[in-house]
Design goal:
With 204 residues, this protein is mostly helical. The chain has two domains: 84 residues, no CATH class; 82 residues, no CATH class. The chain has eight helices and five strands; from the N terminus they run H-E-H-E-E-E-E-H-H-H-H-H-H. The strands form two sheets. The chain has a three-stranded antiparallel sheet with strand order 1-3-2, with no helix packed on it. The longest helix is centred in the C-terminal third of the chain and has 23 residues.
Amino acid sequence: MTAAEDRGERPVASVPCDGCVECCYFHEIDFDPSEECKEDLAHLDFVEAEDRKVRLRKRDDGSCIHLGDSGCTVYQHRPRPCRVYDCRYAALISMVETFDENRHSPMWIFDPHTRDGELLKGAFRMLGMMHQAREAQSGRHPPVEETFRYAMENVDGCFRALKEISRLPPEQLAQVLGFDPRTLTQEDQLNIMRAMTVGMKTVS
């Protein structure tokens, strides 16, 4: 842990990587030198980028220059984008983040132990798919951070709606939805999510 982290100035994601280094192949790792302490900058190999930012140097194989046989060789001094990056966000909204042709974020499996946890997981998944499908209609493929931000902004309302719906008896729920949700396959769920976004321009 660096001195800046000791002072509580820098957030750090606590991802259980367990040897995974996929994100070390991220296509570009830009960061603002003003957000880093001088001690850390002295350990980083970077080049100038745009907007007064700099970018970690990469090898020809696409890996970060600081990736070693056992992982990051400057882990205690890594820049802010590396400290705060959390690949679980992509999985939570049913997305996979591509780093290069052969590397991508892992697909985490979430196993909530409560009914509310299951509903919250469903809300994030639903919002992620809705945002991606809506943007795809205009030819856009939004990055993970944009879709996750959208999900975070809307998850409370979606969670409350799902919670209210889940309280209905199965027969009444089938009448409200027009189908029995107990008989739905995963493919059926995906098709319903896509259909919900047809014609949508904005989501309040």
